[in-house]
Automatic annotation (TrEMBL):
CDD domains: AAA. Residues 473-500 form a coiled coil. This is Fis family transcriptional regulator. Keywords: ATP-binding, Coiled coil, DNA-binding, Nucleotide-binding, Transcription, Transcription regulation. GO terms for biological process: regulation of DNA-templated transcription.
Amino acid sequence: MTLPAANAAAVSQTLLPAELAAMPLALTLVESSSTVVLRQQAARLLQSHLGLALAECLYIEGSGRWLGRDSDNVQFDCADFNHPYAHVIRSGKPLTLSVADARIRLDHPGFQAQLAPLTATSQLHIRPLRAVDGQREWLGALLLVGQAATLTALIDNPGMAAYEALLCRLWSRLAREQGERQRSQVLQDSLTKLNDGARRQALADQLADDLLGQSVAMQALRRHVIRAAETNLAVLLQGETGTGKDRVARAIHQFSGRAKEPFMAINCAAIPEALLESELFGHAKGAFSGADHARAGLISQAHGGTLFLDEIGDMPLALQAKLLRVLESGRYRPLGASEERCADLRLVAATHQPLRERIKQQHFRADLYYRLGQFPITLPALSERQDDIAQLAQAFITDFCEREGRAEMGITPAALRQLYRREYPGNVRELKNIVDYACAMTPEGADIDAYVLPGEQQETAGQPVVSTAEPVALALSDDIDDLRQALRDLESAIIRQRLQRFGGNRAQAAESLGLPKRTLAHKCQLLELDIK
Ligand SMILES: Nc1ncnc2c1ncn2[C@@H]1O[C@H](COP(=O)(O)OP(=O)(O)OP(=O)(O)O)[C@@H](O)[C@H]1O
């Protein structure tokens, strides 16, 4: 050691006042990052610097009902006087007793376990720790174990009072900060959730322009679409024909991060089996007779975007296996090509068929079904969301008028009631066709009336069975089991036709049927054909 360094060491050992010598200890406490670290440091410093047998900081749990240790899960109930901490906390005063005494008088099992390694001649000194500032009254208790003389000297030392005050100040400040951090984290979390919720709701509202309907089922559907759009999961759309699966598939693409990339769609039921593979996977030049050029398939064209496979239930089994490979490995091989290509796309598949049934019949691969259905969405049938009929009808009327350059038109309550009463096996598509037809049949400047609505549909092809202006063919069916109803239906059909023939002019229709105009109006009202 050089001379100046040796001098410095001597100064630090001998000449420093006690206050300055204690600074490193204070600094260790001040640097504690949490209340747990602070308690551990405070006890460790006391134990190691004062030669105590044990020093420990116990904390009072938030409810104030029990004291705990950082080293284990033992709880010391503040109302249980079988350990000394309850006495100290209740009285607010320090307590000193011998280990020997404590072993006999206080039989709390956790406390007895604390005493076990201590010698009987040692003394226990327990001090309550109280917050010097802030709201928390009691922080915990400090347990010191050592020889009686050491403890007495320590308790009387003003340095110990300062040490305890520093410990309590730091403890309550850290507790406050930790609480604030926790509260602000909770606030932050709920704000993030709120923002996420608000952002999703705003997107779902935006989607309402495209996927019409205010029913609970439609609102839930729109929320699902937004959620699905946020992910890259494969989406399986299931629902009856005409429920809007195609629309939903496009919406998922438009609201996704892939919106600027291509959206490619194919109907697996509409393409001959032999062509479907090359449509999807593409082919190399000369892959089969007639393949004069290499051709990119839809998988390649959808790169970066979305591939929509409609009527997936009709995909041949051999192709299902290849599609599964694309989904699992992201790779595919065009027909006749020697090398594999990479596919980066989101798949949306749709079907109106019960795929589980198709799996049972071994027409559909179960593994593909589960891979496709990472995000399953079921579309509600129109019968499950009848509340939406009026809004859909009005939107289809507006579309029709814009398309055909016609003046705005409305719909009479009677016509609307008829729309509500119908069944729609073809769902929204069928409703749209009916409204389009009714629009075409409604005279310029008038509202759609019940008499222009086509008759109830006989088949489920999604097309309305339109009545013509020709005389009604009286189908005297053997099925008639309610003569009055049959007559009402016939009467309604005749009046409807006649009104149609005269462009809704009730005076002419009444005259042609040999009825007074008032009688016709009354019948129309009864039959809910026209309430004007
Ligand atoms: N929520 C909706 N809002 C507005 N139009 C809708 C809605 N749902 C369906 N449509 C309309 O109904 C018609 C049928 O919809 P779409 O083709 O999406 O049904 P789909 O379920 O794919 O039918 P399919 O199973 O027969 O292929 C389309 O004209 C579509 O625009």
